[in-house]
Amino acid sequence: MSGTLGVAVIGAGRMGADHVRRFGVTVGGARVVAVADPDGDRAKEVAASAEGASAHTDPAAALAAPGVGAVVIASPGPAHEEALLAALELDLPVLCEKPLTPDAAGALRVLEAEQRLGRRRIQVGFMRRYDAEYVRLKELLDAGGIGRPLFLHCRHRNASSPSFFTSGMLISDSVVHEVDAARWLLGQEVTAVSVLSPASSAGAPEGLRDPQLVLMETSGGAIVDVEVFVNCGFGYQVRCEAVGEAGSARIGEGRTMDVEAAGRRSEEIVQDFTVRFADAYDRQLRAWVAAAARGRVTGPDAWDGYAAAAVSEAGLTALRTGVRTPVEMAGRPPLYH
Ligand code: NAI
């Protein structure tokens, strides 16, 4: 179809399949033409859900498929760098799920490749920037509605974590969302990270340090605290209270439906991110398609992905050593100003 962006999807797991479904149902202007996953059956199953899409076990074959004009990367974080470099080689616009890369050194190699290309091609899947509540909070802060921000008190709770989750992934996979949200909401960089953890919850798998309290200091003198608890058992909650010199604002209270029955009043709690952030994922993908069609990147870019990786790395050191760890960041290249 002329005027329609042909998309290759690399990684056909939970997020990859969800993005493919979105292109078919809620996001216009693009269609999935190729799907890659080392699990060939999975690739075929997800490709079959998009009319005319081819299935591949090799990401390079999917990128080379006829009609590919853009890429969504939804493989696990450690596989992102290779796919990103291949997409940049072909000068294709990319939406890469978070984290850009799990480590800052890998993210720097991606930044270097993009600078060699000479234009920004990568958007990172920090979809909270597209969530209506986060957008309202950002507008309030930017307008000075609660004065100079002093604290962000954040809560990030999942009912349960995947079996492969490690103590470090609470920071590099979960809190990385708060890292980006804090940088974006405050317009400041994170300068140091400390991590405290209470006795692990009996509901967490053996050996997992869950929950944790991650404290971030910012360049403008604010403090961001994040309670991350990925086996809380009762549901999915992402909350943020901003406290400023002249007021406070709270988002993520998750009001859904009150039920009154059998002598009790109760409220439903959302169980996972695909429900809580459904609209944000849609808006993120629509914005990416619209920008890609104009050869542009308008959302969080590779620099934001690098900055988050650098903060994660400091967080992982703080978790391991128990010591407050300064964030080491390279200078911001002109391409990202
Ligand atoms: P998943 O485990 O459900 O799916 C990953 C898929 O990638 C699997 O089908 C696997 O076979 C495939 N894969 C493995 N190595 C590959 C490679 N080298 N090339 C291509 N495919 C490969 O994982 P999930 O939850 O879908 O996560 C994927 C990405 O999305 C991760 O980066 C994760 O951090 C991110 N994510 C983002 C969320 C958000 O809210 N923005 C929420 C959950 C995950």
Write the layout of secondary structure elements.
Elements: E1 5-10, H1 14-25, E2 30-36, H2 40-48, E3 54-56, H3 59-63, E4 70-73, H4 80-89, E5 94-96, H5 104-117, E6 122-124, H6 132-142, E7 149-157, H7 169-186, E8 190-196, E9 212-218, E10 223-229, E11 237-244, E12 247-251, E13 258-261, E14 264-267, H8 273-276, H9 278-293, H10 302-321, E15 325-326
Parallel strand pairs: 1-2, 1-4, 2-3, 4-5, 5-6, 7-10
Antiparallel strand pairs: 7-11, 8-9, 8-15, 9-10, 11-12, 13-14
Helix pairs in contact: 4-5, 5-10, 6-7, 7-10
Bound molecules: 1,4-dihydronicotinamide adenine dinucleotide (NAI).
In a few lines, what is going on in this structure?
The chain is an alpha/beta fold. It contains 10 helices and 15 strands.
3D shape: globular
Q: Helix content range of the residues, please?
A: 25-40%
CATH architecture of the largest domain: 3-Layer(aba) Sandwich
What value does the average pLDDT take? 96
The number of distinct structural domains comes to 2
Name the bound molecules: 1,4-dihydronicotinamide adenine dinucleotide
Cα gyration radius (Å): 20 Å
- Fourth-tier CATH superfamily name of the largest domain: NAD(P)-binding Rossmann-like Domain
For the secondary structure, the number of strands is 15
Strand content: 15-25%
Strand order of the largest sheet: 12-11-7-10-9-8-15
Instruction: Give, in order, the helices and strands.
Output: EHEHEHEHEHEHEHEEEEEEEHHHE
Enumerate the spans where pLDDT stays under 50 for 5 or more consecutive residues.
none
How far apart lie the N and C ends? 36 Å
Describe the largest sheet: 7 strands, mixed
Instruction: Quickly count the helices.
Output: 10
Annotated CATH topology of the largest domain: Rossmann fold
Structural class estimated from helices and strands? alpha/beta
CATH class designation of the largest domain: Alpha Beta
